[in-house]
Amino acid sequence: MAVSMHCSQTAVVGSAAVRSVEVGVVRSGSRKVCFSPFINAGVRHSVQNGKRFIAGSVSASSHTKRSGSVRMGYTESGPTVAIVGVTGAVGQEFLDVLTDRDFPYRDIKMLASKRSAGQKMSFEGKEYVIEELTEESFKGVEIALFSAGGSISKKYGPLAAAQGTIVVDNSSAFRMDEGVPLVVPEVNADAMSHIKLSNKKGALIANPNCSTIICLMAATPLHRHAKVKRMVVSTYQAASGAGAAAMAELELQTKEVLEGKEPTCNIFNRQYAFNLFSHNSPVTGNGYNEEEMKLVKETRKIWSDNDVKVTATCIRVPVMRAHAESINLQFETPLDEEKAREILSQAEGLIVIDDRAGNNFPTPLEVSKKDAVAVGRIRQDVSQEGNHGLDIFVCGDQIRKGAALNAVQIAELLL
Ligand SMILES: NC(=O)C1=CN([C@@H]2O[C@H](COP(=O)(O)OP(=O)(O)OC[C@H]3O[C@@H](n4cnc5c(N)ncnc54)[C@H](OP(=O)(O)O)[C@@H]3O)[C@@H](O)[C@H]2O)C=CC1
Ligand SMILES: N[C@@H](CC(=O)OP(=O)(O)O)C(=O)O
Q1: What is the ipTM, given to two decimal places?
Q2: pTM, entire model
Q3: Pick the CATH number of 211-397 from 3.30.70.240, 3.30.360.10, 3.40.1090.10, 2.60.40.10
Q4: Rg of the chain over CA atoms, in angstroms?
């Protein structure tokens, strides 16, 4: 696996920390997966009005911990795990997250399409051969992490569950199905408390949409305190949400445009570099696109609250792998910004970066390859009376907390 570096820059977190950022592309076979190692994730950074402090800890990123040569999670008593879509952007991230979290496993099956079958890959010091996904793939598999698109999940998810496998599915195939828990572990772990490996019974569990996960990581602690009545979300979504090929095309287009060439437009059928556009998911009958409606419907299911009003506008921006979201909240009971900042700084999986004096707030680069979702721009909404409204701005790594990390956290709840 060769690593090519493309640029390095300096960034400032709050007033004190200065770290170097390297943005690069890992080449694995014909695929490219971009990464951006950044702030040390071993501590939870919090910057409030120019004052930086450390509160608690979040798990280390792959770049601080991964050795690549030791079978860290291997244990005879662990479950047999399958990764469906292992060659994809999310599939590769699954492997990083499993290592970072020392997820226990006895064996791992690496599954992808016929195109990849037979290719070799190494993970934690052992060589694996990628197998073609078939109906026979789940024999003896206790946990399957699916990330190969909705149609694959629809075909193989129920089949695996019927054979006794607990499927954690990253697609939207089953999210709104009654009886299928839709889980963000920090928010509603109780929704899947009846599903355990020890039951020796197959099941389907759905991983929410990445924009929904990132949004609810910050909105939920505030919702618990003052009950959200209405939420207005505007997203700035990265290339990674459209898969490894979209990431590669953003990189290619950027080079082409800088060289004065016509950009290659295979993924979105338009120029993406130096541009932005409405999210590429189909626009539905009510004028919302599917990504926007996922934020509406999934929030209601995760919060078990059919009355909460949600509206969203989703935009694709030329950022490699972390989503940003502006969120306006209306509360049933008053909540002032100081209290909100305190609540958010104590919430699991969040870091607060809210440095007004330095005009320094969360950025996608800062959270890339990081577990934590960053929140800032915490301010009273001046258009709402009596402290009933707040604005916040969040950034979260789309492939990590928005997909692979959330799914692995779900898998941990099964043990
Ligand atoms: N929770 C969330 O918000 C997110 C969910 N996702 C879900 O994950 C899916 C994959 O995303 P991503 O990794 O970014 O996409 P990629 O395009 O990077 O990867 C797709 C993966 O699916 C595999 N695949 C495709 N067709 C088949 C097949 N017929 N049988 C078996 N495997 C197949 C590919 O294998 P091969 O290399 O052999 O073609 C590859 O491993 C998305 O379609 C979406 O459903 C993604 C991002 C976020
Ligand atoms: N939310 C991803 C797309 C995606 O994979 O969504 P879902 O998991 O809901 O299909 C994006 O940024 O475009």
Answers
A1: 0.97
A2: 0.86
A3: 3.30.360.10
A4: 21
